[in-house]
Write a structure and sequence with these properties.
The chain is of the alpha+beta class. 31% of the residues lie in helices and 32% in strands. It contains 8 helices and 16 strands. It has helices at residues 13-31, 44-56, 68-78, 95-99, 107-119, 144-154, 162-173, 232-238; strands at 4-9, 35-39, 61-66, 85-89, 123-131, 134-136, 139-143, 178-184, 189-194, 196-200, 222-227, 253-258, 260-264, 269-272, 275-279, 282-294. A hairpin with a 2-residue loop joins strand 14 (269-272) and strand 15 (275-279). It starts with a strand and ends with a strand.
Length: 296
C-alpha cells in the first residue's frame, strides 16, 4: 500500500459542506504522514473516470468526501479492487458512514480514524449489493419511500431534508398499496400488495431510518423488509418506530433473507444509496466481500 490518499470530493454535498470539508480532512491526513491528492470532476461521469484512474494508478486509499451519493459513486470505482475505501461524510444522510462506524460531519475526526485504520491495517472486506453493473452499500428502496424520493427530487424548494418531509406529506395524501411480484433465491414467487419493499445490505437509509435493522454487511445475504397493505393511519403510527427498527414486530411487516432478489411493480423507481437505479423490474444480488473498507 502506498502512502498516497486520493480525496474524492463533491463540492456541492450538504450545501457546500463537501468543499469545506476537504481542507481539514487533507490536513489531518498530511499530519498523519500521508500525501494527498484531490479529485474533483466536472460532473459525475468525469469524476468517476478520474477516481477509477486514481485507483488504477495505485492509490493507497480512495476517500470520498460528501454524502451517500458520493459514497455510492466511489463504490463504482473501488468495488472488486483491493483499494480501501474511506468516507468523510458531510452530506444529509450519511448512512453508509454510520454503517462503517465512521464519524459524520466532522471531517478531521473522520480523516484521523481512517489514517489510523490504514496505519494499523484495520481494513475489512464487506458485502455490496449489485443491480446490473451498479453497486450499492446500504439499501435499495422501492414503493412509498422511492415515490417520496421522486417527489423530493423534483422540488426546488425548500432545500435539505425539510423538502422530503413535505414530500412525505404529499405522498401520504395520494397513498395506496401497490401490487408487487417478489422472487427470492428460494425460487418462490410472492405476489402481494405492499406499501414498500426495501432490500438491505446495510441497515439504514434516509439519515438513520433503520428499515432493515438486522442487516449485516458481512453475512452474504440481504435483509428484505416488506411493509404490507397497511392504511395511512397504520403507516403514520408505525413510521416513528423505524428509527429504532421496531417496525419489524408489526403484523404488517415481514422480513426475508436472500442473496438474490427480483422486484417487479408498475410505475416504481428503485433507489439504491439514495440514487435512482431506474424503474422496476430490477434484479439485485449480494456480492460477498466485494469492497475493502477502512474504519474502526
Amino acid at each position: 500500500m502506498t502512502s498516497e490518499i486520493t480525496l474524492f470530493v463533491n463540492p456541492t454535498a450538504g450545501r457546500g459542506r463537501g468543499a469545506r470539508a476537504a481542507q481539514p480532512a487533507a490536513s489531518a491526513f498530511r499530519a498523519a504522514g500521508f500525501s494527498v491528492r484531490t479529485v474533483i470532476g466536472q460532473n459525475a461521469v468525469d469524476a468517476l473516470a478520474r477516481a477509477r484512474a486514481a485507483v488504477a494508478d495505485g492509490a493507497g486509499a480512495l476517500v470520498a468526501v460528501g454524502g451517500d451519493g458520493m459514497a455510492n459513486l466511489a463504490l463504482q470505482a473501488v468495488a472488486g479492487t483491493r483499494t480501501p475505501l474511506g468516507l468523510v461524510a458531510v452530506g444529509t444522510g450519511n448512512d453508509f458512514a454510520r454503517t462503517l462506524g465512521l464519524p459524520v460531519r466532522d471531517p478531521a475526526a473522520a480523516a484521523r480514524v481512517i489514517a489510523e485504520g490504514l496505519k494499523g491495517a484495520r481494513v475489512r472486506d464487506i458485502d455490496l449489493g449489485r443491480a446490473g453493473d451498479h453497486w450499492f452499500g446500504t439499501v435499495l428502496a422501492s414503493g412509498f419511500d422511492s415515490r417520496v424520493n421522486d417527489r423530493g427530487n423534483r422540488m426546488r424548494w425548500p432545500v435539505g431534508r425539510f423538502k422530503y418531509d413535505l414530500a412525505i406529506l404529499a405522498e401520504l395524501a395520494a397513498f395506496r398499496p401497490l401490487p408487487y411480484r417478489i422472487t427470492l433465491d428460494d425460487g418462490a414467487v410472492r405476489e402481494i400488495e405492499a406499501t414498500l419493499v426495501a432490500v438491505g445490505n446495510g441497515s439504514s437509509y434516509g439519515g438513520g431510518l433503520r428499515i432493515c435493522p438486522g442487516a449485516d454487511v458481512t453475512d452474504g445475504l440481504f435483509d428484505v423488509t416488506v411493509v404490507g397493505d397497511c392504511s395511512r393511519t397504520t403507516l403514520l403510527r408505525v413510521f416513528p418506530s423505524v428509527y429504532r427498527g421496531g417496525h419489524v414486530g408489526h403484523p404488517k411487516v415481514t422480513v426475508h433473507r436472500a442473496a438474490r432478489v427480483e422486484l417487479a411493480a408498475e410505475g416504481i423507481t428503485g433507489y439504491a444509496d439514495g440514487e435512482p437505479l431506474g424503474p422496476l423490474p430490477l434484479t439485485v444480488e449480494c456480492k460477498p466481500g466485494a469492497v475493502r473498507v477502512v474504519g474502526p
